[in-house]
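Q: Could you write out the predicted structure for this multi-component system? I'm mainly interested in how the pieces pack against one another.
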Amino acid sequence: MIRIGILGYGNLGRGIECAVRQNPDMQLAAVFTRRAPETVKILTEGVPVYPAAEAAAHADEVDVLVLCGGSATDLPTQTPEFAQWFHVVDSFDTHANIPVHFDEVDAAAKASGKMALISAGWDPGMFSLNRLYANAVLPCGADYTFWGKGVSQGHSDAIRRIEGVKDARQYTIPVPAALDAVRSGSQPQLTTRQKHTRECFVVAEEGADLARIENEIKTMPNYFADYDTTVHFISEEELQRDHSGIPHGGFVIRTGKTGWNLEHNHIIEYSLKLDSNPEFTSSVILAYARAIYRLAQKGESGCRTVFDIAPGLLSPQSPEELRAHML
Amino acid sequence: MIRIGILGYGNLGRGIECAVRQNPDMQLAAVFTRRAPETVKILTEGVPVYPAAEAAAHADEVDVLVLCGGSATDLPTQTPEFAQWFHVVDSFDTHANIPVHFDEVDAAAKASGKMALISAGWDPGMFSLNRLYANAVLPCGADYTFWGKGVSQGHSDAIRRIEGVKDARQYTIPVPAALDAVRSGSQPQLTTRQKHTRECFVVAEEGADLARIENEIKTMPNYFADYDTTVHFISEEELQRDHSGIPHGGFVIRTGKTGWNLEHNHIIEYSLKLDSNPEFTSSVILAYARAIYRLAQKGESGCRTVFDIAPGLLSPQSPEELRAHML
């Protein structure tokens, strides 16, 4: 049994807790929290909740610690810190900062002799893998990634910061015509606006100026100004009833050419349609927790990404079983 | 530069030759053939064509030898034989016999200290990888593989063996309703007939009994009897004009559930739409040729499959570049 620890019990931490139950070779060993442990009520019976500050003292109770904090401020310090004591997996998703994060985690894990894997999830993660495989297989081609339909937490938060907004939910939606153009193999150049639309469901404060709110959303730089954005004002009840889920997904498509005169077209498409973004991310993380546990057993240490992990290491099946049944 | 050798210059061998041009770190070093070398006209200038029987004498001219024979009779003997002298990659695709083939190639490659990789391509190959990743990520779910629309060489050959048939082309086609049912997440049980239809384009001999031919096709055990099959009789000119390509493709879909009470559905879908089956297979093979070349440089030996290869090894980019740009 691989004993899994969770650091941070939010949506992702709960997702890990649920996913552990689906992996018969894993068990939840401990939850670590920065809150007062007695205020954290977890779903699994009989599993201790410890203060995060005392995690090092419980290192021998856990085989792999999953870091469930955020990429903005938590993981850049947490992952190197906890790699001192644990084999760790995180879902660091600030793409531009991955090289720096990798180096810091790698140094910490090498110093402690622990294994670490960063940026597990679906983007980065499964989408990255599909970009890499498709690029390796079709050197002459073009890549496209579309996100959605799904909830963007960052964009929802940006709307909530507008004066007069009580709550909000933002969906990122791929433009069907853009998907069709990509799938045609014509390798179109697509602008930001052509690829995705943004749909916002907003609960306004009583008496707020709706026209101003809508204008502030649609003209917000980086977040909305470059997109065709739709704003719907709805009641708090409607938001709760119709928009409380955290779905997401998307498409990674590479089209490329082969042949002596590049006369043949090929389309590789990978897509995800996820009812729960954090639960799917958790499921990916646990597969990689299994892989780094195995590498640690072999005496390896240092930081890895999904690009470094042989796929067979993710499966509870043996290499012989995989060759016989899944190849 | 990785020097690529080709053994067997048919559709797949030509595909390898074309794909080498798209990989700037590779060059074609030699073609080996069982035919009289002077009768084999290859596309690349200045590359020698040698008798297959003399391949061992040219082992130092080649870094990785790609075996382009068939899975029925060629590869079971060729891959172990040539692994005596070369690092080898094949596209062995008789799924049921992969374990035996693996063991034989592994023994040969370990004895010679060479690297080997078997069953590269798209099924087995990219489809296998996607089955494995999706299973590791969603332990509670169901798998579906659909093939087509594409030309099945085996089924086309079976039709050609019927008396009165001059030529034929058979397409395997996924049933759209079955794809939709799978994508709904309902995890349907589908029969052979529900998943695929078969469409046949047949050129009959002058005066042949068309009704008998059609009946023989539709009732042929294993090949057609379990499917809804359509037969079109066309002229030789029409066959040449409309059906001379070798397209193929298909879909690997896994749907699964997560959550404390398995309340959330997820759909992972991978699809290929290929103008040229042998050229795409060749492109996959070369990415794996790069990987085993690198492993050989590190002193590794023995047989591998796509499940054993860390994805980063497939790319000409460095791990640093991949983390910065593709993760």
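A: Regarding packing and overall arrangement: The radius of gyration of chain B is 22 Å.
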